[in-house]
TrEMBL record:
It comes from Drosophila gunungcola (fruit fly). PROSITE patterns: TRYPSIN_DOM, TRYPSIN_HIS. Coiled coil: none annotated. GO terms for biological process: proteolysis. PANTHER family: ACROSIN-RELATED, HYALIN. Residues 1-22 form the signal peptide. InterPro entries: Peptidase_S1_PA (IPR009003), Peptidase_S1_PA_chymotrypsin (IPR043504), Peptidase_S1A (IPR001314), Trypsin_dom (IPR001254), TRYPSIN_HIS (IPR018114). This is Peptidase S1 domain-containing protein. The lineage of its organism: Eukaryota, Metazoa, Ecdysozoa, Arthropoda, Hexapoda. Residues 43-274 form the Peptidase S1 domain. SMART domains: Tryp_SPc. It is found in: Secreted.
Length: 284
């Protein structure tokens, strides 16, 4: 006897992880507004990002106003960051729509983090599974300077993602002056073999991490938790997908940094999204 068509549809819907039949966690992700051409101002380890070029960037700060880490908005309620950025002793706030830290104007809401979910197998010594998801106290409204980054949930994308050799990182971390940047910086970084990170960080990386870096430029202290990704074309539309999370580097921030592989932790991301991403009460 053939399957009943309605029953088949229900079965398909039951196993689809997201509404909208999208390849991404949030179908509205990864798009940018048109911005003015960059003036070309450069620093040793990157260049100043265009305004609104990374509307998914999140500036994480503590109650004492200290800058903690970077992060990315992945839905209207969830922020992706590194596990080492979260401390149970601190209340975190996520500033959205941030670009130039000293600029007081514009729409830059600051939302309290009401729950944090760190990977249960995170190892603070090796930084394996250095990934965490923060839940905002309320869902934010998307606009020009606030929009989620694309998170690919289908493992069939693995070969394509691994083939992308030039990646883009963003953050407010240390510049060549040794100070955090006032403006959001961006940098193109090459993938490197695991052996390069093993050599320059004195730590062996595992399969759900990857290595990237340049000789004289790199993400540095303060960029932790921020994204490494790439602009792709999907269904005739450009989308920026997140591929890695900045985890750790060497003291000189040269040649090698280790990144948490996002697709390698997609089960963790989906679990948190399903259980706590839509306003359900969180249990720590």
């Amino acid at each position: 006897m053939g399957k009943h068509p309605i029953a088949s549809q229900l079965l398909v819907l039951l196993f689809l992880p997201f509404p909208g039949f999208s390849q991404f966690l949030d179908p509205l992700c990864g798009t940018r507004t048109r911005t003015q051409k960059n003036t070309g101002m450069r620093v040793i380890n990157g260049q100043i990002a265009q305004n609104n070029s990374s509307p998914w960037m999140v500036f994480l700060k503590a109650t004492d106003y200290t800058f903690v880490c970077g992060g990315t908005l992945i839905t209207n309620r969830l922020v992706l960051t590194a596990a080492h950025c979260f401390s149970p002793q601190k209340t975190l706030f996520a500033r959205l729509g941030e670009y130039k830290r000293s600029f007081k104007g514009g729409y830059k809401p600051e939302v309290r983090v009401d729950a944090a979910f760190r990977h249960r197998l995170y190892n603070p010594n090796t930084h394996v599974n250095d990934i965490a998801i923060l839940r905002l106290a309320y869902a934010v409204t998307y606009r020009e300077n606030i929009r989620p980054i694309c998170i690919v949930w289908d493992p069939n994308w693995r070969n394509y993602i691994d083939s992308i050799q030039l990646l883009t990182g963003t953050g407010w971390g240390n510049t060549e002056t040794g100070m955090d940047s006032d403006e959001l910086m961006t940098l193109e970084i090459q993938r490197r073999s695991p052996q390069v990170c093993n050599k320059y960080t004195n730590n062996n990386i595992v399969s759900n991490q990857f290595c990237a870096g340049n000789l004289n430029s790199n993400l540095c202290n303060g960029d932790s938790g921020g994204p490494l990704g790439a602009m792709i074309t999907y269904q005739n539309k450009q989308r920026f997908i997140q591929i890695g999370i900045a985890s750790y580097t060497n003291q000189r921030c040269q040649w090698a940094s280790v990144y948490t592989d996002v697709l390698g932790h997609i089960d963790f991301i989906l679990r948190v999204w399903r259980l706590y991403g839509n306003g359900q009460k969180a249990t720590q």
